Give the backbone structure.
Amino acid sequence: MGSDLIHDQELWFTDGSIVLLAEKTLFRVYAGILSRASPIFRDMFAIGQVHNAEETYEGCPLVVMAGDNANDMRAFLEALHDPRSFQMNSPKPTDIPHIVSVLRVSTKYDAIHLRRRAIEALQTWYGDSLSAYQQGLEVLRSWSNTSPPVPSPIISRKDFFYNILVANVAIEASATVPLPAALLLCCVSAQDFRVPYDGVTNSDGILYELVPEAKRSIFIGRPVLENIALVRKSIRNFKSTQDCKSPGICGDFCRMVASKHETRGSLFLDPFFPFFRLNRKVISGQSCEACRSGWEASNKRETEILWRDLPLIFDLPPWDVLQSASNEDCHEVPTAGLPVPATAVLDLVM
Ligand SMILES: [Zn+2]
């Protein structure tokens, strides 16, 4: 073996029964634990090819893990050999790269329990319900470096690579449930369109780029979302209600809102932006109660419809198809990007 190989510091059990080599890192672990978690490892060890293998390392059978990244493999093996390393009851955003690594390898080797837990952990921030998405967004924002907090759900550029990691693994590992929220956050948290297109270079010097399928979804979905946001906030939709007590004042306020949103330039206009909640104070002083509650109710209704149609906007299958694809334990589920006509979107735009 080459002399530039290194033992992993943690995952090197002196009584381990198998040595795995990923890139330049050697892991000495237990074949029994791997067999129990993964039918692919079980078959690999059962047919005896490993124990008859010519290659050994310090007396242990050696398996070269072709195509596996050492960091991903470490996260996967650690989760199997030390369950404390993957207790994802209340994960932090900084755990996202670790979870993505576990998801990638557990999918490849069909370790279904670990795969399920990784998908569930990602749903902390990239959920399939509107309320989960909004809660996750709050958490991501509170972790971002934006100081003072800006009055829009923009996540700092530093943390943008989380969205890229999750969108990519959702496609590559057919873990499709977190995909729409990850794509949406790629639109929402990027100051301009170049970021999801070019990717970001993180503080570790690595360039994180979206896979082509994710870029395609954003290319299709981003302008639709912006158009919906513009229409919803424009004077055409945002007008005083039938029960209005002060048409003059409320009318002025609607015109002010419309003009404000039309001058936002190239920033992404987010149709999920909690406009009414954040501007309640402003609204209170400049409109009547009937209009306020009418606007809030219609905003809530429209936001729910928009969430229902979000996968279609990104040219993905609807939520129920994404959910069943994620729940499939086979790792050969068709990936996202299945062509489904986004007809429901027209109802929102028109
Ligand atoms: Zn009014």
The longest helix spans residues 289-313. Strands lie at 6-12, 18-22, 25-29, 56-57, 60-64, 200-201, 207-208. Residues 6-68 form one domain.
